[in-house]
Structure formats: C-alpha cells, structure tokens
Specification:
By secondary structure, this protein is α/β, with parallel strands linked by helices. It is 45% helix and 14% strand. An 8-stranded parallel barrel has the order 1-2-3-4-5-6-7-8, surrounded by 6 helices. The structure holds 2-phosphoglycolic acid. The site of 2-phosphoglycolic acid has 13 residues, from strand 8.
Length: 255
C-alpha cells in the first residue's frame, strides 16, 4: 500500500524562532492511531533549525523549491544537495505560485524533478488548473500537460519515488475547496496517466496529495476518497492545532 502523507507548505512565513516554536507545538500534538508521514516545508533560512527540532520525532522536512544545478555561478539559488545537507528529505516542485510569479515552466519543473531524484530527495510535484481552465473544461488537458512534462525522461524506478500534489489553483488560499468528487476525479485521471507512462505498479505506488484550502473541518471527506493519499496544506499548516487536526483526519481515513 502506498504511503499517506500530510505535508505543510509554510510558504514565505515564519522566522527561525517562530518556525522552531511551531515544531515544538506540533511535536506535542496527538497524530492519531494510524499516522501518515508528516512533512513540514519551511523557508530556506529555517530548514537547518527545523530539521534539528524534528530529529527523532518522525516529522520530515522538505524544501519549497530547488535549482537543478548542483553548484556554481547561480546567484541566489539553492540545489538539492544543499537541501539534503540542511536536513531535507522532500522538496516541493512546480507549485502554482512558482509557476505564476517566478516563471516556472513544465521544462524547468522537469529539470528540477530529475535533479531532486538524482540527489535522492523525494519530489512533491505540483499540478493543477486555474479557474478559467476548469470552467473551460480544460482541467484534464492541463493535468496531462503538467504530469507528462514533469516526468519526461524519468525512469519507472525513479517515478515510483515521487509524490504528486493536485492543487486546483482556484482553491489555493481562497477558502474554496474542491469537492471530494472533484479531487477524486482529478487524482484518478492523474493516476491513469502514470499507468500510460509507466505501469499499474508505478501508478499505484505514487502518493497523490490534494492541496487547496484543506482544513481540519474538510480534510476527512477528501482524504477518504480512494485516490487521495494525503494533503499539501498551506494556511492551515501554520498553526500546530489545525495541522494536527488534518493529520488526525488522515489517520482516521487510513484506518
Ligand atoms: P492553502 O495552500 O492550503 O493555503 O490553500 C495550499 C498550497 O498552496 O499548497
């Protein structure tokens, strides 16, 4: 059975002190009887301290982005090997905010996915449509492009080590959550692309997370869907109590 994962994307929030405080509070929370893998993704500057705080707790750490070259004259960039060095096991790639504000494309996402896999980081590959695309019935076409683009030239063995996050852009930070049925349909569609690209075996190994306004109150219904293996949580991951509520919902859904 594939892993259930609840990942917190802290985005551009939390000083080092605040980040440590959040992890300290999170470690005191009850994660339920059947807890998922829990990942927190702080800003680069807080990764080392957060990793130290997480050591021995079972909470894993991820970066929010990486650059595909390992080192050299690339001012302002951080590579996968440096993320590993700071304590990361995961890295978010191709988040819609990166696509929207920082010129991320399917090609750069692909280079980053390959680089993460080479560095043995587990990529959390984001995909999802904007509102006009959903309203224009283009959701599947966009997901097809994002997924095929991200996995271009990635071997089956490597693909089996990835995580996908379906994040409808209209649901991110808006309070508008996709219905459990909309999430299930998109996840099943994505899994089917993996069957086409690779095999049933690879498709059933890859956890597909839902992201977009996940809260403790709406998490369980979404997480109970058969192709929803977890969540990528933004706003609600900034409060230990809310994030733990979502982790417990996963624990319950996975029981
Ligand atoms: P949100 O963000 O939970 O605040 O909607 C999700 C994300 O962007 O990963």
């Amino acid at each position: 059975m594939r892993q259930r994962i609840i990942a917190g994307n802290w985005k551009l929030n939390k000083t080092i002190t605040e980040a440590i405080e959040l992890v300290v509070l999170l470690k005191r929370e009850n994660f339920g009887m059947n807890p998922p893998v829990v990942v927190v993704c702080p800003v680069f500057t807080a990764i080392t301290e957060v990793s130290e705080q997480c050591a021995g707790s079972g909470i894993k750490v991820g970066g929010q982005n990486l650059y595909w070259e390992e080192k050299g004259a690339f001012t302002g960039e951080v590579s996968g090997s440096l993320l590993k060095d700071a304590g990361c096991e995961y890295v978010i790639i191709g988040h819609s905010e990166r696509r929207q504000f920082f010129g991320e494309t399917d090609d750069s996402v692909n280079l980053k996915v390959k680089s993460a896999l080479t560095q043995t980081l587990l990529p959390i590959i984001c995909c999802g449509e904007v509102l006009e695309e959903r309203e224009g019935n283009l959701t599947n076409q966009i997901l097809d492009r994002h997924i095929r683009g991200a996995f271009k030239g990635v071997s089956a063995e490597d693909a089996a080590r990835t995580v996908i996050a379906y994040e409808p852009v209209w649901a991110i930070g808006t309070g508008k959550v996709a219905t459990p049925e909309q999430a299930q349909d998109a996840h099943a569609f994505i899994r089917n692309i993996l069957v086409e690209l690779y095999s049933d075996e690879v498709a059933s190994a890859v956890p597909i997370l839902y992201g977009g306004s996940v809260k403790p109150e709406n998490a369980l219904e979404i997480l109970k869907k058969p192709d929803v293996d977890g969540a990528l949580v933004g706003g609600a991951s900034l409060k230990a109590g809310d994030f733990a509520g979502i982790i417990r919902a996963s624990s319950e859904a996975g029981a």
